[in-house]
């Protein structure tokens, strides 16, 4: 998930949110004629996990699950 958002494991919540917004603009299928729905879904899923402290802690400890 960190790679998808282009951030490191030490990123703050503010950095995660900023990276998410940047990636959304780059992949949103409704905003771009060549938007990639699959890439946008991956960005959304990454933010769903990393944007929540509890989910992020579980992901950091156990990985994708």
UniProtKB/TrEMBL annotation:
PROSITE patterns documented for this protein: DNAJ_2
J domain ranges (all copies): 1-63
Origin species: Thalassiosira pseudonana (Marine diatom)
Organism superkingdom: Eukaryota
SUPFAM superfamilies referenced in this protein's UniProt entry, alphabetically: Chaperone J-domain (SSF46565)
Identification of the protein by name: J domain-containing protein
Name of one Pfam family that matches: DnaJ
């Amino acid at each position: 998930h960190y790679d998808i958002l282009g951030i490191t494991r030490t990123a703050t919540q503010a950095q995660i949110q900023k990276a998410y917004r940047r990636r959304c603009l780059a992949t949103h299928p409704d905003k771009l004629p060549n938007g990639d729905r699959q890439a946008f879904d991956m960005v959304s899923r990454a933010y769903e996990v990393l944007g929540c402290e509890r989910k992020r802690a579980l992901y950091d400890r156990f990985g994708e699950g």
